[in-house]
Amino acid sequence: MLRTADFDYHLPEELIADRPPERRQDARLLLVDRPSQTLQHLRFTDFPSLLQPSDLVVLNNVKVARARFYSDDGRFELLRLHTLAPLRWHCLAKPGKRLALGKTLSVGGAIGTITEVKPDGSRIIQWDRDIDENTFGHLPLPHYMKRADDAADEARYQTVFAAPHHTRAIAAPTAGLHFTHDILAPLHHTFITLEVGAGTFQPVKAERLQDHLMHTERYHVSPAAAQAIEAAPRRIAVGTTVARVLEHCAATDGHVSPHSGETSIFIHPPWSFQRVDALLTNFHLPKSTLFMLVCACAGTDFMRHAYQEAIAARYRFYSYGDCMLIR
C-alpha cells in the first residue's frame, strides 16, 4: 500500500526559485538516464543534443490567465478557477470563512454575491457587471514565491508559444518556460492544450494514495497533434501536464485522437507509460501528485536519489527553477 509519506523530502527554503533566471535558456538540466541509472549535470541549452532526429517534442500551449483578484477593501483574495458564465465565477476564496453564502464583496467596483459554497470550500460568485481582467486581475504566482506578480512576470510566467486563445490556465506549464523560439524552431514538435488547474501543485493530504481525490483538468488535442503523436517513434513530453494528457488518452482509448475532454488521471508507481518515452520536467513539491508522477516514470528510489543530488548541487526548484530530462 502506497503512502503519501513515501513521497516526502526536505528542501532547503533558499533553493525555492522566486524569480526566473536572467534568460529562459539559462536553467540547469539534470539528465536522468534510466537504463544506466546515472545522472549528468548539464544546461538546458544541451536539450536539443539529447534528442534523436525523429523524436517528437510535445508541448502545452496554454496561456496563464490573470486569474487572481483582490477585493477593493483588501480583505479578500479570489482565485478564479472557471468562468461558468460571463458574470458567474467558480473561485477559491481567502479567507473563505468570511465569505459565507449570501455575502458580498467588491472587485473593481463590481459587486459579487456568494451564491453557492461547494463541499470542497470553493465558491460560486455572481457579479453585477464585468470586471476588467487586465486592470484588476493578477497572474496567479504560486504562494511559495511569497510575492506579488510584477511586470517581469508578464513575459516570464508565460511560455513563448502560449496561444492567446487558450487563456484558461491558473498556473504555467513550467517545463515549457525554458524554451526560446530559437531553441524550439529546429525541433520536431507539436502542441496539445491542458488548462492547468489549482489542484496540480497542491500536496496530497490523504495518508494513503488510494484515498486521494484527484483534481480534474480540461484538455484539447487537435487533429494535427494527434496524427503527429501517433506517428512518432518516440514522444518527449514537455511537462507533467502533457504527460497526463497523453497517458489519459492512451489509458482511455488506447491511442491519442483529436478531441476535447477532461482528465482526472492520477499517475503514480507503478505505472506503465504508453505514450511518454521521455519527460522534461521541473522539480516538484514534496508529497505532490507531480512528484509521484516522476517517481512512476523513473522509479521512486532513483528519483529520490536524483532530487537529493539536485539539492546537494544547489539546483533551483519549482516553477521558476531548473529542470530534468528523464529518458
Note down, in words, how this protein is organized:
With 327 residues, the chain is an alpha/beta fold. It has two domains: 4-64 and 146-326, QueA-like; 68-136, QueA-like (Thrombin, subunit H, Beta Barrel), CATH 2.40.10.240. The chain has seven helices and 17 strands. The protein has helices at 133-136, 151-156, 181-184, 223-231, 240-253, 289-298, 300-312; strands spanning 28-33, 38-43, 56-60, 63-64, 68-70, 77-85, 88-94, 104-107, 110-117, 123-127, 167-169, 189-194, 217-221, 235-238, 259-263, 278-282, 323-326. A nine-stranded mixed beta sheet has the order 2-1-17-16-14-3-12-13-15. Strand 5 and strand 6 form a beta hairpin. Helix 6 crosses helix 7 (300-312). The mean pLDDT is 96.
β-strand number: 17
Average pLDDT works out at 96
| CATH-assigned homologous superfamily of the largest domain | QueA-like
Order of helices and strands: EEEEEEEEEEHHEHEEHEHEEHHE
Detail the poorly predicted runs: none
Distance between the termini: 27 Å
Q: Indicate the overall shape.
A: globular
CATH fold descriptor of the largest domain:
QueA-like
Regarding CATH, which class of the largest domain? Alpha Beta
Total separate domains:
2
Strand order of the biggest β-sheet: 2-1-17-16-14-3-12-13-15
Structural class: alpha/beta
Kindly estimate the percentage of residues that lie in beta strands according to DSSP: 25-35%
**Major pleated sheet:** 9 strands, mixed
How many helical stretches? 7
Radius of gyration, rounded?
A: 20 Å
Helix content: 10-25%
Features:
single chain, 327 residues, alpha/beta, QueA-like, Thrombin, subunit H, 2 domains, 9-stranded mixed sheet, 6-stranded antiparallel sheet, 27% strand
